[in-house]
Amino acid sequence: MVRSYKLSNVTQAYLNTYYYILNTMIRRMTSVQLTHSISENFIQQMIPHHLAAIEMSKNILKYTTNLEVQSITTNIISAQTKSISNMQSIQSKCRMLTNKDFEQSNYMRRFEKIAQTMFYEMGSVHVTNGVNANFVREMIPHHEGAVRMSNNALQFNICPELKPILYSIITTQCEGIQQLKHLLKHLDNC
């Protein structure tokens, strides 16, 4: 967290919850019991990632009056809830497709690099008393991490039912990143 002045009580309350959600996500994503199925591992790693986005969105909704932020967070909650449901519905089938040890090792090496970058960027964003801008700066690396993790999984033999979910994550998160970056320019100019 980078800051250059005293934070308001509202900002501090927002950030306390944000960091709790972030640390919970990190713990859950990094403590997954790995199997020999990249598909299964991806699902187990992505569900806590999506849950964090939902909780982070609910957190900012307690503090924001910005209609665009409200719209973005409502869309995040809806899309990520649906994605979690879709992944859970195929999880037992996907775990049946196993991968060779070298594939699993390559997948995890890339995943760990992507995840560590995302964790660092989300934990060290520039913080101001503008909670809307804080949320946007935090959510951009979160979305970028989902895109990278999905692209990583697509490099390997994964269950066919998972592929459309990954393509949907990539599409929606890339659109979300562009929307968030556009909004951030406006928020930073206020």
From TrEMBL:
DUF305 domain spans which residues? 41-184
What Pfam families does its record include? DUF305
| Name this protein carries in UniProt | DUF305 domain-containing protein
